């Protein structure tokens, strides 16, 4: 597995996203079995970075991650846990309470990385949020801070307010979606030691019909989905967090980190 290292923090190029683990925006107990199978498979495959959020299945995703770690007897120190606070909870006391909830559901004393899930709304503001986030870091309940879905202006403002380096901006980024390239976020992250975490990296129509992906996949004895992931992580300061319920696809996603694309292949996918 390839890694990225910034500010003495090393993260794998490919982690495991958990949106829909345990349900969508509300818990769905009927998904518990398939969710646990996916989480166990990810741990057995070798994933070490797990990304979740308090809004994923209204916290049930966090509970299932905790259960998977416990049932597989995975040492907490071997896993990098990322969770995210909902923008409705960015007021100072609300954010502290939200973090406590995530810690409780994950059954851990600390989060490795805590993100603001979406830009402020509902009358909240970044100043209040980072006052709470900085306190959580000071208390050791959170190791590192980041943001998600932030444009360049908000990312820079976050850097000003954070007492510790902003580790990542988690955004939608994939072959057909270059919005965070066009708005300057990717280049800024690469130039300022901030990871761009690409979510929903292969969630787009036409993956199997994309001529460049199919052609390059054949030459590497890989799937088009693996090539789409390999293209992402070929870029400096870019990591990604694909998700699947299928153990076969979970392993394929993980193995995509070992695919080395040529410069010509990268350019063809980038310019296609």
Q: How would you sum up this structure, described in words?
A:
With 272 residues, this protein is an alpha/beta fold. It has a single domain (3-205, 231-258), classed as Alpha-Beta Barrel (TIM Barrel), CATH 3.20.20. It is 41% helix and 17% strand. It has helices at residues 32-45, 60-71, 92-106, 126-138, 152-161, 179-182, 185-191, 211-219, 224-233, 247-255, 263-271; strands at 3-6, 9-12, 16-17, 49-51, 80-85, 111-116, 142-148, 166-172, 195-199, 238-240. The strands form 2 sheets. The chain has an 8-stranded parallel β-sheet. A two-stranded antiparallel ribbon has the order 1-2. Helix 1 crosses helix 2 (60-71) and helix 3 crosses helix 4 (126-138). The radius of gyration is 18 Å and the shape is globular. The mean pLDDT is 96.
Offer a concise description of the structure:
With 272 residues, the chain is an alpha/beta fold. The protein has helices spanning 32-45, 60-71, 92-106, 126-138, 152-161, 179-182, 185-191, 211-219, 224-233, 247-255, 263-271; strands at residues 3-6, 9-12, 16-17, 49-51, 80-85, 111-116, 142-148, 166-172, 195-199, 238-240.
Layout: helices, strands, pairs:
Blueprint: E1 3-6, E2 9-12, E3 16-17, H1 32-45, E4 49-51, H2 60-71, E5 80-85, H3 92-106, E6 111-116, H4 126-138, E7 142-148, H5 152-161, E8 166-172, H6 179-182, H7 185-191, E9 195-199, H8 211-219, H9 224-233, E10 238-240, H10 247-255, H11 263-271
Parallel strand pairs: 3-4, 4-5, 5-6, 6-7, 7-8, 8-9, 9-10
Antiparallel strand pairs: 1-2
């Amino acid at each position: 597995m390839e890694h990225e290292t910034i500010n003495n923090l090393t993260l794998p190029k490919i982690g495991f996203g958990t949106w829909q683990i345990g349900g969508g925006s509300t818990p769905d107990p009927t998904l518990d079995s398939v969710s646990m199978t996916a989480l166990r498979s990810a741990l057995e495959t070798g994933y070490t970075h797990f990304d979740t959020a308090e809004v994923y299945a209204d916290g049930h995703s966090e509970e299932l991650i905790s259960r998977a770690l416990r049932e597989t007897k995975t040492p907490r120190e071997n896993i990098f846990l990322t969770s995210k606070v909902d923008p409705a909870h960015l007021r100072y006391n609300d954010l502290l309470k939200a973090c406590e909830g995530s810690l409780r559901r994950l059954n851990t004393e600390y989060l490795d990385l805590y993100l603001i899930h979406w830009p402020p709304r509902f009358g909240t503001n970044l100043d209040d949020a980072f006052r709470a986030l900085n306190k959580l870091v000071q208390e050791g309940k959170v190791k590192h801070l980041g943001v998600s879905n932030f444009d360049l202006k908000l990312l820079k403002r976050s850097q000003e307010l954070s007492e510790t380096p902003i580790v990542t901006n988690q955004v939608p980024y994939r072959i057909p979606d270059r919005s965070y390239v066009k708005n300057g976020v990717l280049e800024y992250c690469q130039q300022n030691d901030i990871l761009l975490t690409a979510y929903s990296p292969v969630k787009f129509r036409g993956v199997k019909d994309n001529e460049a992906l199919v052609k390059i996949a054949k030459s590497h004895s890989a799937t088009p989905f693996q090539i789409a992931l390999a293209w992402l992580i070929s870029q400096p300061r870019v990591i990604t967090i694909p998700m699947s319920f299928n153990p076969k696809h979970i392993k394929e996603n993980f193995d995509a980190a070992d695919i080395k694309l040529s410069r010509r292949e990268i350019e063809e996918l980038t310019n296609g």
